[in-house]
Write a structure and sequence with these properties.
- By secondary structure, this protein is mainly beta.
- 0% of the residues lie in helices and 46% in strands.
- The chain contains no helices and 18 strands.
- The chain has a 4-stranded antiparallel β-sheet, with no helix packed on it. A 4-stranded antiparallel β-sheet has the order 5-6-7-8, with no helix packed on it. The protein has a 4-stranded antiparallel β-sheet with strand order 9-10-11-12, with no helix packed on it.
- It is elongated.
Length: 208
């Protein structure tokens, strides 16, 4: 079926099962409104109450949760709850500094976040489904000669037990790491090569 919308779509997710679509519409050129559409139902899409027309910065979805970035944090909806889209107070994870640049769900329990504040990037592990823990800043300890400067990081992803970093000069680095690991020595990284170009790595996509 076709859905006619009243504003541009600025975010779109399809559930792992393929039966639910989450999308946001850009309103007034700034704020967004989030909707949930059940593809197996004849009902109209329903507004996700907890979004409250905030300025959203990216989406991620799994069987268990929907996660969206906002200034300074994340909103987490529990998809296992009946009528989850009616939750007016989703879990809120705070103390993420800056504007979200990328968001990836890892092992259902963590969100891997890259944020940017005053042109300085920060990588975080945010534990989902708990209100007790603050996000962990990932610190890249430097040996005598650093492989990369933190200011050069432009992309981050996690796949098959490895953390992957992209830089402003087109390099990719990889290291064995566990979800939630907050300290990593740069000496453990290997460069994924050979380098194909000198342009910034803007995003890294991994198979789910």
């Amino acid at each position: 079926s076709m859905l006619v919308l009243s504003a541009p779509v600025d975010g779109l997710l399809i559930s792992p099962g393929g039966d639910e679509v989450i999308y946001s519409l850009a309103l007034d050129g700034r704020d967004s409104t989030v909707f949930r559409w059940d593809l197996n139902s004849a009902e109209e899409p329903q507004e996700v109450a907890g979004a409250q027309r905030r300025s959203l910065q990216g989406f991620a979805i799994s069987d268990d949760v929907v996660v969206s970035g906002i200034n300074g944090g994340l909103l987490v909806w529990n998809r296992k709850s009946p009528n989850w889209w009616t939750q007016k107070e989703p879990q809120r994870i705070t103390n993420l500094s800056g504007r979200l640049r990328s968001l990836q769900l890892v092992d259902e329990d963590f969100a891997l976040v890259l944020s940017l504040r005053n042109l300085i990037p920060t990588v975080y592990w945010a534990r989902l489904k708990t209100d007790a823990e603050e996000p962990q800043v990932v610190r890249f300890e430097s040996p005598d000669r650093a492989l990369f400067e933190l200011s050069q990081l432009t992309a981050v992803a996690y796949a098959q037990g490895r953390l992957i970093l992209g830089t402003a000069d087109g390099r990719l680095y990889s290291v064995i790491a566990s979800p939630g690991q907050a300290e990593i020595n740069q000496a453990m990284f290997v460069e994924v090569g050979p380098r194909q170009h000198f342009s910034a790595v803007n995003s890294i996509k991994v198979d789910s």
